[in-house]
Design brief:
Blueprint: H1 21-33, H2 35-67, H3 73-122, H4 125-130, H5 133-175, H6 177-183, H7 187-224, H8 226-231, H9 235-287, H10 293-334, E1 357-364, E2 374-381, E3 384-389, H11 396-403, E4 414-416, E5 419-420, H12 426-430, E6 433-436, H13 447-451, H14 460-469, H15 473-477, H16 496-510, E7 514-518, H17 526-539, E8 544-548, H18 552-555, E9 560-565, E10 568-573, H19 575-581, H20 583-595
Parallel strand pairs: 3-8, 3-9, 6-7, 7-8
Antiparallel strand pairs: 1-2, 1-4, 4-5, 9-10
Helix pairs in contact: 1-3, 1-10, 2-3, 2-5, 2-10, 3-5, 5-6, 5-7, 5-10, 6-9, 7-9, 7-10, 9-10, 14-16, 19-20
């Protein structure tokens, strides 16, 4: 791990400027699906706004009746009852729109989260080499929250602001046109300021999300590598680097807060200026009898209702810009396409077969590199055990990845039972193979569930049979809770050899016709290794097994051995033949004998 790589400030996969097609592409289907819920919510919102607009009219009528000496106790009691009834109805319908619209925003959040997760599941290895886990997590957390807020409270506030603005201004015009125009004089200032500040808000929030991605990825890599960090006593250095990333994140948020801090005061200032003008000029109109005192109170009440939309402009703009920025980032993620995909018309299943892979002059170069990882590979891997060895970087793991269909290969260079793999379903080919990699992947779950991961519904007897074949049953029975023992995060409670054998048991339980072991026995001692190899032979009799290893004891049991060097096949044959013909193989055996 290179922690310093996270300090460059480069997110690596940030999306371009906001593409408004993301709104149509991502939000259109979910809005259509929930249109009934949204319609009910918006109707309830309009009812609330309408009821709020009636209260000033009730107040106007009551004040005018008082000033005109026409009020009676009964009429005032009736008005009070109407105000209370209106307030109660407002509460009921407000609850309804909050349930409908804010509930919709949560459904939208779930829909987008499911789409992100499903999309990530189909992406290939090339995608994960360029997108960090922290970046993906930022899209599925901070970005989703921003979109949810924009499509929940943001959408409500926007509609509410528009309705209340139009209705309040209309009713104000009915009371007095001149006073309404005076009250609206500061409005252009709000429009100009909001437009200028919203541009800055979008750019700065984009930087916040990028910094959050870096911070998340740094924390993740530190936690998963905590043993190495402690072994090299890098705790203080990691703390300093985390603090630096955190400081950058805070500075980015403060730059956003500056814009937010300007939007709200500007909106409030505009509203208060309008109120000040109304109090001065409206008061004079009341004194001169142009409008009644009740009309003036109603006008001020409508202006007060108008202050909220003015203030909401800043808040809605903030939510909208955050939401659009995050939606653009999510859209950019969902537009990523895997390099590897099925051709049209490819059948989803394969005919029954005893898998035999054939490489025919295969040449492979990793995306983004120039140097070939494999060159002119001509090789047949069929039933029985094939050993694969060679120096570090010779292409052994690459060959396994191609068999697993993790990267695309040129047409007619890799065949399965005579069929070009590019004409076969990727999932079907992978479904033939059980894989044990160099890096063991264990989940923070029980031993039994880790073994049964590749075959849901497996019974306890089957799990134990696989564990016995992998020579790990006795170790498991020595644990305090046996097969129900929790292995801890990434199998931290197990030794390296136990982790590898549990991973092997998982592959054996999957009961697939092909088994790939990419240096997955390196942490096992020699005696246990022989028991494991015997178990593999007995458990997978007549099937195709490829074992990548540098250990002579493992290779000597193989039916055939292939030696790779610099991406080419340098030798092949049995153990005896390679001892006689391959200098590399013979030197490797001599070194291991000397070390023993």
């Amino acid at each position: 791990m290179n922690p310093g790589s996270f300090l460059s400030g480069r997110a690596g996969t940030e999306r371009p400027a906001v593409d408004f097609s993301a709104v149509r592409t991502l939000l259109g289907p979910i809005f259509r699906h929930h249109r009934g819920r949204l319609l009910l919510g918006f109707v309830a919102l309009l009812v609330v706004d309408s009821l709020q607009l009636t209260i000033p009219q009730l107040l106007r009528h009551g004040i005018d009746s008082l000033t005109g000496a026409t009020a009676t106790p009964q009429s005032l009691l009736l008005l009070a009852g109407l105000v209370l009834l209106t307030a109660a109805c407002i509460g009921i319908f407000r609850f309804l729109w909050r349930t409908m619209i804010l509930g919709f925003s949560r459904h939208l959040e779930q829909h987008l989260r499911d789409r992100i997760f499903a999309h990530i599941m189909i992406m290939d290895r090339a995608f994960f080499s360029s997108w960090t886990t922290g970046n993906i997590m930022a899209h599925a957390s901070n970005d989703l929250t921003a979109v949810q807020m924009a499509c929940g409270m943001g959408m409500v506030a926007a509609l509410d602001a528009v309705v209340m603005t139009v209705a309040a201004i209309t009713l104000m015009l009915l009371i007095d046109v001149r006073l309404t125009l005076i009250a609206l004089l500061p409005m252009p200032l709000l429009i100009v300021c909001t437009r200028l500040l919203s541009r800055q808000l979008h750019q700065r929030f984009d930087q916040v999300q990028a910094q959050f991605s870096l911070l998340t990825e740094f924390a993740r890599t530190t936690l998963v590598s905590i043993e190495m960090v402690k072994a090299y006593t890098l705790e203080r250095m990691q703390e300093r680097r985390f603090d630096e990333l955190g400081s950058r994140y805070v500075r980015s948020n403060l730059r956003v807060a500056v814009i937010q801090g300007l939007l709200f005061p500007v909106a409030t200032l505009v509203g208060n200026i309008g109120m000040l003008l109304v109090l001065y000029f409206g008061g004079r109109l009341v004194v001169h009898g142009t409008i009644t005192l009740g009309g003036f109170v109603a006008f001020v009440s409508y202006l007060y209702l108008l202050v909220w939309p003015m203030m909401a402009v800043g808040w809605v703009t903030n939510l909208a810009q955050r939401g659009l920025t995050s939606l653009g980032r999510i859209h950019h993620l969902l537009r990523q396409q895997p390099l590897l995909g099925d051709q049209e018309g490819v059948p989803a299943t394969l005919p029954p077969c005893r898998p035999r892979f054939v490489f025919d002059h295969l040449r492979f170069t990793y995306p983004g590199t120039d140097r070939p990882a494999l060159q002119d590979i001509c090789l047949e891997i069929g039933p029985g055990i094939t050993g694969l060895t060679g120096p570090t970087g010779s292409g052994k793991s690459t060959l396994c990845r191609l068999l697993l269909r993790l990267y695309p290969v040129p047409d007619r260079t890799l065949f399965l039972d005579g069929h070009d793999v590019n004409t076969l379903s990727i999932a079907a080919v992978r479904g033939l193979i059980a894989y044990v990699g160099q890096e063991v992947v264990l989940f923070s779950d029980t031993v039994a569930n880790n073994i049964a991961f590749g075959r849901s519904g497996a019974g306890q007897e089957e799990i134990e049979a696989a564990a016995k074949a992998a020579a790990v049953h006795e170790d498991i029975m020595g644990f305090s809770d046996g097969y129900q023992t929790m292995v801890g995060e990434r199998g931290v409670r197990l030794s390296g050899g136990q982790q590898q054998r549990i991973a092997l048991a998982r592959a054996l339980l999957a009961d697939r016709p092909v088994l790939l072991i990419d240096d997955g026995l390196s942490a096992i001692d020699v005696d246990t290794e022989q028991r494991v190899l015997a178990g593999i032979r007995a458990h997978l009799q007549g099937r195709t097994v490829l074992i990548v290893s540098h250990r002579i004891n493992v290779l000597a049991t193989a039916d055939r051995i292939v030696v790779l060097e610099e991406g080419r096949i340098r030798a092949r044959g049995s153990h005896r033949q390679l001892l006689a013909e391959s200098g590399f193989y013979r030197a490797m055996m001599d070194r291991q004998r000397f070390d023993a």
